[in-house]
Recover the amino acids of this structure.
């Protein structure tokens, strides 16, 4: 199984966001604010021509974290049939490496409760209690220093 990582535009990952993150909801819910900004990056993991995973990085600080230039990691998804094969982890590392190459020192994300163990395994720390994102569910804030 050969996995390739590519920079893509937001429209290339709408379908997988929909299938994995917004199942049963309108496709319009898969557009995120900031998707098309010039400092936003989207990565897709491909097997042959199929998008099997995706993640987006947006330049955004979080008021709970004291860091001037941090990125928010969003829309992390691996197609269900490919989950548990380290594709998510490789995609995450790929995204982090890109941020390090841009001299970004911190990455943070709002994590679904179910996905907390995945981020913990990848050295993300939780900050504060859980909170609700309307129509998506409970999340926690997690972050990782890239220094
Ligand atoms: C969360 C997600 C991106 C992880 O990707 P993945 O390819 O399935 O995960 P990986 O195979 O790379 O897992 C890496 C490690 O995390 C662990 N892990 C992944 N998901 C886990 C979970 N839900 N619970 C416990 N451990 C988990 C794996 O067991 C593995 O640990 P190991 O190194 O000890 O074997 C993927 O399962 C997914 O898309 N889930 C649905 C959408 C979602 O929740 N996205 C995150 C939004 S915040």
């Amino acid at each position: 199984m050969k996995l390739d990582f590519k920079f893509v535009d937001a429209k290339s990952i709408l379908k997988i966001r929909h299938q994995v993150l917004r199942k049963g909801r309108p496709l319009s819910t898969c557009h995120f604010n900031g998707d098309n900004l010039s400092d936003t990056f989207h990565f897709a993991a491909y097997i042959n021509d199929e998008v099997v995973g995706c993640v987006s990085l947006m330049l955004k600080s979080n008021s709970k974290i004291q860091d001037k230039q941090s990125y928010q990691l969003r829309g992390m998804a691996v197609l269900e049939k490919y989950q548990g094969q380290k594709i998510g982890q490789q995609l995450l590392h790929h995204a982090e490496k890109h941020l390090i190459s841009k001299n970004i020192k911190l990455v943070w994300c709002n994590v679904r409760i179910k996905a907390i163990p995945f981020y913990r395994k990848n050295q993300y720390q939780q900050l504060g209690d859980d909170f609700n994102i309307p129509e998506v569910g409970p999340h926690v804030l997690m972050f990782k220093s890239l220094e």
